[in-house]
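Issue 218. Parser rejects a valid record. Input:
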Amino acid sequence: MAAAPAAAGSGAGRGRRSAATVAAWGGWGGRPRPSNILLQLRQGQLTGRGLVRAVQFTETFLTERDKQSKWSGIPQLLLKLHATSHLHSDFAECQNILKEISPLLSMEAMAFVTEERKLTQETTYPNTYIFDLFGGVDLLVEILMRPTISIRGQKLKISDEMSKDCLSILYNTCVCTEGVTKRLAEKNDFVIFLFTLMTSKKTFLQTATLIEDILGVKKEMIRLDEVPNLSSLVSNFDQQQLANFCRILAVTISEMDTGNDDKHTLLAKNAQQKKSLSLGPSAAEINQAALLSIPGFVERLCKLATRKVSESTGTASFLQELEEWYTWLDNALVLDALMRVANEESEHNQASIVFPPPGASEENGLPHTSARTQLPQSMKIMHEIMYKLEVLYVLCVLLMGRQRNQVHRMIAEFKLIPGLNNLFDKLIWRKHSASALVLHGHNQNCDCSPDITLKIQFLRLLQSFSDHHENKYLLLNNQELNELSAISLKANIPEVEAVLNTDRSLVCDGKRGLLTRLLQVMKKEPAESSFRFWQARAVESFLRGTTSYADQMFLLKRGLLEHILYCIVDSECKSRDVLQSYFDLLGELMKFNVDAFKRFNKYINTDAKFQVFLKQINSSLVDSNMLVRCVTLSLDRFENQVDMKVAEVLSECRLLAYISQVPTQMSFLFRLINIIHVQTLTQENVSCLNTSLVILMLARRKERLPLYLRLLQRMEHSKKYPGFLLNNFHNLLRFWQQHYLHKDKDSTCLENSSCISFSYWKETVSILLNPDRQSPSALVSYIEEPYMDIDRDFTEE
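Output the parser choked on:
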């Protein structure tokens, strides 16, 4: 056991050295070796034994070593901090020492985050590294948690100012010294305790920033139901605090990603789901439920998301928060962007805002301003953008969770969609100035830009909101809902029930609804824009589910089909993600709709254009197979209709004529089966398996299933690999049974999107998997015995 240190400043220890000191010196009479001290401290930090803290050294020894090693007096300050922070201390001197330590670390952290210099190598022992190595982090954790200790029934108290200093120093150390954040994350009782510090406005931002960093590296997700008085804590937050708290919630309600690619395969997901069923709800699901149980929580998020810039926090409190951001380096990059634009605008407005250097501020804590009551509008806008980013993300995750219907009902009730519609032009999709805000080290088109991130998050929310839910009609205004009714009336078809049931008091107001606004900006988007993917996904989600002729015509009348074809054919889009989203949207837009196929044929009016279109389809069937499926289903329906308009389209449409050819269908079928395997199936490419099944189900309806299987066998032989395709297809269908027969949602989606009963899907798969080699519709009948390989246990591969 190392000897206890002498009292600070007593001079004791000059004649006698502790065992730890002797070891650090390398033995009696050895020369001072500071590097040995640091190596032993590092070893002690890893093992928990030996040298771990400054308190194991004498002040005299540390002072002597400091002269040579330039430790900035940090070990001595830690020694004093330990001596003045015991349980019976009044903490006054303790806070003075913290004030001495803080600037030594904050300057280093500021330089690190703003990239004014490269991070100093560990071998030169920067201040934050020395602070941690001599036990500073553990000591501050102990000081912060003193209020959890009771002495004679009374709990100790430390001031908010002292807590703020401790949190500041801890965060700066986390920023600059590798491994500190992970060590803090392992202290679960400390992480839970940090939430209690958010009850004070003075320490809220510092606490929230530190918690966010800690949770970002924590291996196991924290459970919010373990936080003391969570409901009271959140309910007492003002709107500004709640918006910042959403940064933490983003980490606690999203399922953790282990970074393992295998988890993205359906095999692995199914295995994980089985495991989850035995373990109960995940931590993320528990946390979502905990938040939804807080009275008024979702309502307050909706108000934050739809708040206008003019309704945001006043200038004085905003300036104070900006100063906090300047001190709190988590937001330093954002502030960098804010300050740059502020300075540009101030040159024109004479309303400059000059921030003092770190550590220097006026007595009232506000930065110096030449016009305190004025604030550049772009800074107010950025303020709202940063808040809305976090709030929209939380709402989006809740919309995709187990309580989806509950969240949907509340979001509709609290008029989130009309509120976002009113913000669309002025904030969400506002025009950029020449000095558009970007983060430090990024450019205006970077996906990290706050403006761009807000747009993407907004589009993701719309996608989640519209997907297979009747509330999607809230994206329209009253006039547009009347238009849907008129389309149904003109076509002499029943009006969509969900349209009739829509509460007109909750829909968008103004001249255009949110969906129409989205279509307008979508058509103006540059060819290389990263928004195209998300825009197409959001619009497609409006069409998903049971096919609605009125919905399709509403979009067709606004030129959506022509826009999609222009992007696919005339701009010859190269992005695979954008192409996939456009093909999926085109499929939903055209499915079973004669008018859509007429418009298609009118736009693709030359063989040259049609060949470009086919080239795009055939370049990646994973991307285009949903369109192939929709056209195949439409062809089957049209062929069974007796109608002059339909007959005209069948005789004129190049695309329908192309798909109707058996060689074309067989080519698609062969490639769709060949590009997927059970071990590589994901949520993205499983559609290839379902499209191949659609082709075979329609063949079965026409009693041509044996013909198609025989043609597949011939194609196998022509490739000199007999059995390889049909064995693979057999395994895929076995997996299909395991996957879909236990998932109601997926089976419902298959039925609604194809208009083929799920019982027919199941029957067709069972017929194909029939083990009887005499059956003309069984796969095994077309696999020669020497090449049979159908009993493989793919779950263990």
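Fixed in the parser; the record now loads. The mean pLDDT is 81.
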